[in-house]
Give the backbone structure.
Amino acid sequence: MSGLSILLRGILFSLIWWLLTDGDTASWWIGVPAVALALIINIALLPSSNLVWHEFLIFVPFFLLRSLLGGVDVARRAIDPRMPIAPALFEYPLRLPAGMPQVFMANTVSLLPGTLSAELCTNCLKVHVLDSRGGFLAELEAVEQRVARLFGTSLKTF
Amino acid sequence: MTLIDYLTAALLLAGAIFFFAGTVGLLRFPDVYTRLHALTKADNVGLGLMVVALAIQAESWTAVGKLLLIWLLVMLAGASVAHLVARGALRRGVRPWKQ
């Protein structure tokens, strides 16, 4: 693991401490050991991540917009008197590498329109879809592609 | 009231509508999986709108950061817990509702 990524994580944790304490300088007596401890635990649990930071700038607006649409979509279906839903369980073959990218994908999927990740098995994601008539497959493929870019990997081809 | 106050009021109201819709979904939807859809997605948007409403009123940058941190953590917890509940239901053999 490179020194630079340790430094970046340290800065991130310090920033969180600064936020939590409203920038109170006296609190750093506890803050410095807390940040150090968090950093040690973080490195032990997640020794390397190939997160491509600048890809976040593309991913965040995409995610915010899609999750907003996800909320609007489900709210509309819930309030509509006819309740237009046609749920189904679907097994999506994952092409992402195991570990963080797959977990990240599973969590993202649950906040996007009409999809809920129900189980992560070996290289497949069981997805519950709210409306099986919709274009959820194209959406899942697009998300997977974006997550791959975020983690600097490519998708396996079968 | 200033323009910012009106914006805050509108965003809070919109957020409340999403929380309301999420609860309606929880009550109306037929099974555990569809109910999870309503809770995770609608409540996430509701909270997001409320966070933005409060952030534009905040008196310091640390308050804005704290609000965003809360939203981020709730989002992470909401998505993870929804996944765990759905997985638990699947493993117990709860069949998804079909028309």
